[in-house]
Task: structure prediction
Amino acid sequence: MKRHLKLILLFMKLSLMKEMIYKKTFVWSFITITAWWLVQLTMVNLIYYNVKAIAGWNFGEMLVLLGTFNIVDSLIFAFFVNNMGKIADYIRKGDLDFFLIKPISSQFYVTFKLFSFNELYEVFLGMFLVFFGLGKISYNIPLINWSVFIIMIFSAIAISYALWLITSCFAFISPRISEIHEAFISISQFSKYPVGIYNKFFNRLLVWFFPVLFMAAIPAGVLLGKYSFIYAAFSIILAVMFILISTKIWNFSLKYYQSASS
Result:
């Protein structure tokens, strides 16, 4: 574990050095992220101008939900978007050979090699949105809720990583589908809406089979006292289970890989 943490820090350092070469692009990304964030906030304001609540979530609570989604979404993008997006290219071009000969887990190396610092800015915007939303709510959040919420954020990142890797592994079967990893990105968007807006079938599907609702909707609900702490235990169990499944699928998928030398 210590070795892996050192490698992650090294990957982050190298990624920062690479990003700082293009300083104008780095600054411009902050501007575009801020603009998109303001657009989202404006849209929520327009929706709640005519309604008091959506599926039992008032304006302040919805801001907490969106803020939670932005935190988790930005963290998984910071760590994994540049990595998951390249898996299909590595497979198609035979570049995966480079990772397989290294004295470290190929799964770890492929999925943690690159880091996007641009995304960290949105983490702080998400945190601001959570506290701004709480300021609109008339009750205080107990410390235990905050503690469970933080645990669920880490579980959400682990679940998201596993689901993203599982969808990316389909590239071993069809390497020409270079954007297969975007399937997870699209499905993950369901988590920025209240659980109650989905019917029973989709609710169960997005909670237990492809548990993207544990990314934001359920953690935010636990923080606000809408859901029981038992969901925190479920999130930890799901995180461990899907991490193990994703590793199994990765190792199994490697059997279908045709190296550049074959």
Q: What stands out?
A: DSSP finds twelve helices and two strands in the chain. The mean pLDDT is 87.
